[in-house]
Amino acid sequence: MELKMLLIISVSAIFVSNFVLHRFLGLCPYIGVSKNLDSALGMGMAVIFVMSIASVVTWSIFHYFLEPSPINIIARCFHKNPPDLTFLRTIAFILVIASLVQFVEMVIQKLSPGLYRSLGIYLPLITTNCAVLGVSILNIDENYNFLQSLVNGFMSGIGFTLALILMAGLREKLELANVPKSMRGTPIAFITAACMALAFLGFSGLTIN
Amino acid sequence: MKEIIKYALILMAVTLTASGALALVNHFTAPKIEAQKQKELSLGLAYVLPEAESGIIIEEKLNETVIYKGYANKDTTQLTGYAFSAYAQGYSSRIWTLVGVDTAGLINRINILDQKETPGLGARCTEIKSGDKNPWWQRQFQEKNAQTIAVKNDGGTIESITGATITSRSITNAVSEQSRILFNNLNHQE
Amino acid sequence: MSRFKEFTKGIFSENPVFRLMLGLCPVLATSTSVKNAIGMGLAVLFVLFCSNVIVSLIRNWVPAKIRIPIYISIIATFVTIVDLVMAGYFPELHHSLGLFIPLIVVNCIILGRAEAFAGKHTVFLSIIDAFGMGIGFTAALITIATFREILGNGTWLGMTIFGTGFEPVLLMILSPGAFLTIGLLIGFLNWFEHYRTVHHS
Predict the structure, then answer these.
(1) Which of B11, B29, B40 sits opposite C84 (nearest CB)?
(2) Neighbours of chain C (3+ CB pairs under 8 A)
(3) Residues A108-112: contacts with CB within 8 Å, 24+ apart?
């Protein structure tokens, strides 16, 4: 049952409710970084990493510090009823994500300067990537446990990267096509996204028994 | 080194001020938000337990699940039925359905209180046709046995919404599963 | 730049959605109906206004190195305030906008304006900028929502436009319709811009 739930979460995150094409999360980098395949792949990897770790860290902060539940730290240490701090969710999550991205930036700069240069401005922009904050909040709203949140974060990152790579491949081809002048660049990218979203709608019939 | 400490202190001051401001706003809005939730719940319960309208509805905990017992009189002598929440993983959201059954296990009414399904497809589970007072799809559930209810594709009597088989099936199965749990617990109580 | 120009640039020449391509996620997600569009637009306008004012007020005391986390904290505070007030007083709108209310905090427009403008200009100019950008954002949202709601649902702001014989184009309400609408609109605006420059020279 536990494994089946994880499988459902994975299939849903990648295909049925794809983060970019169905939930509209992560659009800015989707349009901005999908111009060529290599940077798309690099960005995708970074996003998968950030989303997975962010899911886990934000889940822990919410359930151990903010939500008044039996596992709350304050409840455990002081044996009193912990205050309901769930209203601090947004500010806590975004600050955690910002720090995480800063950390990932430093790591990439040390390990792979080439990747760091090619990602350029888009690396710190992962902080404002709706997908990262989005998946953190979704994990809480859907009442996932620790493992489910981790899987959801990781798989949503994969779904995002999948859409990103598909888009990059298509855009590389579009560069060589004869597109009307007003539609060149972003407009035709959106129309392409529309076709992809249409295709992914076909996954809505997927069920797991 | 001194700079880092100064920066850390400034950041801490900013976040503390922010948290303080939020705590203040939360203090004023939290009771309103709670009141909204309670109102939604009690309206929903009154709808699925109509015979308890002049009586009282009491919340109880049965084996870790919350159920509601409806009585026709305020002195809890005449039990008219039970209500419980059934949660279903729909196509794109978690669907919250309130189910009211009579003591024999037949459904009074269901009330889908929360869903974010696809508009025009799954979201039609809460659609009210013009001139009607309640959702047409949910009316099918009335008077049926809660524990054996199923969609037509699974051998039951509930007609799925066109193009929204996932939503229809999830809701129906959640209702039957949760009512089986309820009556199981009730039987074990005796 | 004249005060008036500061204001109108947010609506036309530097429209955050159609020209600067910022804040796209909520635009596509909340443009399913004009009512949602107005709600989201006003929420963003409120946060943009408040954050621009505060950022501009403290601009001389913020150390440059930690300005981004400070801006984020300020924006997150106002977003939470909007979230709580909406949940308490406008529960239906809060429910339809859902996830995208807290996501206002990562709306590139707000952080972008704080960093690019409010941190360097006076409070008065920052207020004008906030209103310009906010109204521009809302106008773009309402435009896209108008197309999607009329074609996809046969209504505008809930009022039925066509008679009962109208078969709504369901696709417009779903995700492909969103991408299609914004792609065609930007393409049209590009064409219009080109047409204007050609005919003015």
Answers:
(1) B29
(2) A, B
(3) A108/A46
Q: Residue B105 corresponds to which tokens in the numbers above?
A: 């296990």
Taking CB atoms and an 8 Å limit, are C73 and B15 in contact across chains?
A: yes
Q: Measure A98 CA to nearest chain B CA, in Å.
A: 13
Domain of C12 in residue numbering reads as 3-200
Given a contact as 3+ CB pairs under 8 Å, which chains touch B? A, C
Based on the structure, what is the number of domains in chain C? 1
H-only helix segments in C100-169: 108-113, 123-153
Q: What is the tens place of the pLDDT at every residue in B79-125?
A: 888 888 888 877 777 888 999 988 888 898 999 988 878 767 788 88
pTM: 0.84
Residue C75 in this model has a pLDDT that exceeds 90: yes
Select the residue from B2, B5, B17, B33 to test the C interface by mutation, using most C Cβ atoms within 10 A. B33
The answer, yes or no, to whether residue A65 has pLDDT greater than 60, is yes
Residue range(s) defining the domain that contains residue A109:
2-205
Are residues B49 and B84 in contact, defined by beta-carbon separation less than 8 angstroms?
A: no
- Residue C3 predicted with pLDDT over 80: no
Q: Please tell me if residue A179 touches chain C, with a CB cutoff of 8 Å.
A: no
Number of domains forming the structure of chain A: 1
> What is the predicted pLDDT for the residue at C201?
58
The whole domain housing B92 covers: 45-189
Over residues C84-91, the mean pLDDT reads: 90
The alpha helices in chain C, defined as continuous H runs, are 3-9, 24-30, 34-57, 67-89, 91-97, 108-113, 123-153, 175-200
